[in-house]
Amino acid sequence: MNWIETPLRDLERIKELSESLGISKVLSRLLIQRGVSDFNAAKTFFRPEMSQLHSPHLMKDMELAVARIILAMEREEAILVYGDYDVDGTTAVALVADFLQQYYHKVATYIPDRYSEGYGVSYQGIDFASENDIGLIIALDCGVKAIDKVAYAKEKGIDFIICDHHTPGAVLPDAVAVLDPKRLDCNYPYKELCGCGIGFKLIQAISMALEAPKEVVYPYLDLVATAIGADIVPLNGENRTLAYLGLAQINSHPRPGFKAFLETFKKPVVTLTDLNFTVSPRINAAGRMVHGAHAVALLQTKDMAQAKQMAAAIEDNNTERRSLDQHITENALKQIAGDLETTNASTVVYQPDWHKGVIGIVASRLIETHYRPTLVFTKSGHVLAGSARSIKGYDVYKAIEACSEHLIQFGGHMYAAGLTLDPEKYEDFKNAFESYVSSTLDPDLKTPQISIDSPLSFSEISPKFIRILKQMAPFGPENPIPVFKATGVYDTGYAKLIGADQTHLKGTLTQDGGVKINFVAFKKADALALLSHQKKVDIVFNISENFWQGQTTLQLQLLDIKPHQT
Fold it and tell me: Measured on CA atoms in the order 391, 395, 398, 399, is the torsion positive or negative?
């Protein structure tokens, strides 16, 4: 792994911010790296509040969307709240539907089946609306490119309001309103909302039209925070405010659906990372293994006993998902090992009986072992369905787009994409993809890289330092968990292998015989020899907390370990 240290710049600004805030220069450096360069910016960063959110009416078409929803209520029209089957889509549907149902009784929800309908707006969903005399569909986290399907709905007398955050095409669907900050003609100040975030802006605007107290939307911030974490959108600007406030909601008044999952977690404070590792995979598991509608029902229920029952069923789905994930990953690794073309720039594997719901997860797992852009295919009806994942710095969507002549359809973004093709086109696509990746992949990207924010000695890790560092959360893109480097540290003699498969490391480090700090290093079993006999090493790490048996202790999470460089 290559260590890339962020250059030390703006020494005078670091010093000024350090003095004005009364914090260490390391913390000041971290803030400036994240665009926080003065006292007022720091105040906004550390104390997010509702007043920092932009007016929903700054979004193009918002007045049209609200007017059409109010008209539906006045006409007694049925409204269908429609969304994708992933975390962003299901939380968005639960949010908008639950809010509308407080004021109006003719509101239904619809999540497309992952396997029979696929991603986004489907003809089957529109037919469902038509058969049930629904006059308005609110599409969340999808629809901005559904030109033909929106036209089909219009022929059936059904209007669409689209709330999407994906980049639109050259032509927008003929909907009543298209809420998407990425529209070229939309002047909304923040462009990186997730689908659930746009749903939140919609209910904000509706609540204003209904002259409801502004507080009525607050309980829905927990859903927005969960979607922000799961959809890996930037954690700056409005997203940071929404996530911060949503986490406060979860920690003070968790909805039954979240409480059912978090009860066994037993941490004093739930973080965005906790949500990403506990709640989000289980919400996703419902859509992967059974149907996303189960997740929406769990998120909407007000009954704790019902929530526990639903959560238990989804937990079973997640257990099955993990088992499939592990089994398919093992099969795929064997397939790669048996491939004579092990020097390829890309990984493309296929087996007809692999479960479509987990191939994206498997692609990510394969990158952990074979670090290169990866596609995993399975049979889906008469076509092959594939899921792509990429390595840091490489645009896999652009690579797929370059080979689109072999595809039926594709979609996604830089680091993740989905695609379908005819079985007879598989080899042609595989060869074209490999050719494109091999000619465009920068050799420097072929080795995993880790970006280091700042050097940090153990003596600098004080209680105040930790307290302020924690206040920099929630972490995510554009506000990553700070990564530090410490040199000349050594184990105190207690390093050992842990985990069911003995692949992780645990121990206690010290530097110059001073402060001793516990550490954990996941999947670093091969580094045990480096730590033996008090050998000095250099480490790259995050600072985290370990919660065990009611006690919270400081620990370092080691990301990489190398022999000490003198």
Answer: negative
Architecture of the 450-563 domain = Beta Barrel (2.40)
CATH of domain 331-446: 3.10.310.30
CA dihedral 153, 154, 157, 162 (to 10 degrees): 70
Class level of CATH domain 56-312: alpha beta
> How many whole angstroms separate alpha carbon 196 and alpha carbon 224?
6
What is the chain's Cα-based Rg?
25
Tell me the average pLDDT of the chain: 94
Cβ pair 332, 362 in contact under 8 A: yes
| Cα gap 180→160, rounded to integer Å | 14
What's the confidence (pLDDT) of residue 314? 93
What tens digit of pLDDT does each residue of 141-152 get? 999 999 999 999
SS3 of 348, please?
strand
Give the residue with greater pLDDT, 178 vs 548: 178
Q: Is 258 exposed, middle or buried (0-12, 13-18, 19+ CB in 10 A)?
A: buried
Confidence of residue 119 (pLDDT cuts 50, 70, 90): confident
Residue ranges per domain, the chain? 56-312, 331-446, 450-563
Q: Quick check: 459 pLDDT over 90?
A: yes
Does the pLDDT of residue 265 top 80, yes or no? no
> Rounded to whole angstroms, how far apart are CA atoms 332 and 330?
5
Q: Identity (one letter) of the amino acid at 262?
A: L
**Residues 111, 93: contact at Cβ < 8 Å?**
yes
User: Cβ(508)–Cβ(516) under 8 Å?
Assistant: yes
| Beta-ladder partners of 283 | none
Question: What are the two backbone dihedrals, phi and then psi, of residue 551, each rounded to the nearest 5 degrees?
Answer: -115, 135
Residues contacting residue 312 through CB under 8 Å, at least 6 positions apart: none
Q: Are strands 449-452 and 484-491 parallel, antiparallel or unpaired?
A: unpaired
pLDDT at 372: 95
